[in-house]
Amino acid sequence: MNIPNQITISRILLIPIFMIFLLIDFNWGSLGILGAEVPVSHFIAAIIFIVAAGTDWLDGYYARKYNLVTNMGKFLDPLADKLLITAAFVGLVGLDMFPAWAAVVILSREFAVTGLRLVASGSGEVIAASIWGKWKTVSQIVAAAAVLLHNPVFALAGIPFDLIMIYTAVILTVFSGVDYFIKNKHVLTSAE
């Protein structure tokens, strides 16, 4: 297994650690971070989440730079992204920090596109991430991080940056999902 795929797997392995700090109240108090009161456990969860999300860029950069792009990587990378995002949004919904409707829309799109990829793989085709899919992922990561950190910086000015990013993530998620299905409709028509 090459280094980019190992980096991707490290992202998957960070998910349970992230969930422990997100969901267990360790009563370690809170931190004042640029206008936001953040429980220490949420701060640690946010750092783990941001590091895990950062590995998405790192594995892709390394794979392209050293020509180590593999079909396994093309499969594992979006899977790791979906697992991380799913864990974050389900955990945040469980803590009543993220709107359930937004999580359902986002996760429904993720399952639908994963299904499309599975159908395509049955005929030997790999559907790589599009630019809209990448922007969708970035918006979801920023939304989750803003919520995890209780809207730092913007809390000082009273700007609901976390809410703005949730809506941005939902819009980009829906748009990119529609884009995948339009560009790859041949996969579904040839599978009949």
TrEMBL record:
First-tier enzyme category under EC: transferase
EC number: 2.7.8.5
Compartment list: Cell membrane
Alphabetized GO MF terms: CDP-diacylglycerol-glycerol-3-phosphate 3-phosphatidyltransferase activity
Catalytic activity from the UniProt record: a CDP-1,2-diacyl-sn-glycerol + sn-glycerol 3-phosphate = a 1,2-diacyl-sn-glycero-3-phospho-(1'-sn-glycero-3'-phosphate) + CMP + H(+)
Transmembrane segments: 12-34, 40-62, 83-108, 164-182
Topology in membrane: Multi-pass membrane protein
InterPro entries per the UniProt record, alphabetical: CDP-alcohol_PTase-I (IPR050324), CDP-OH_P_trans (IPR000462), CDP-OH_PTrfase_TM_dom (IPR043130), CDP_ALCOHOL_P_TRANSF_CS (IPR048254), Phosphatidylglycerol_P_synth (IPR004570)
Gene3D superfamilies per UniProt: 1.20.120.1760
Keywords of the record: Cell membrane, Lipid biosynthesis, Lipid metabolism, Membrane, Phospholipid biosynthesis, Phospholipid metabolism, Transferase, Transmembrane, Transmembrane helix
A biological process term (GO) from this entry: phosphatidylglycerol biosynthetic process
PROSITE patterns: CDP_ALCOHOL_P_TRANSF (PS00379)
The protein's annotated pathway: Phospholipid metabolism; phosphatidylglycerol biosynthesis; phosphatidylglycerol from CDP-diacylglycerol: step 1/2; Lipid metabolism
A matching Pfam family: CDP-OH_P_transf
One GO CC term, this protein: plasma membrane
Record's function text: This protein catalyzes the committed step to the synthesis of the acidic phospholipids.
Family per record: Belongs to the CDP-alcohol phosphatidyltransferase class-I family.
Protein name in UniProt: CDP-diacylglycerol--glycerol-3-phosphate 3-phosphatidyltransferase
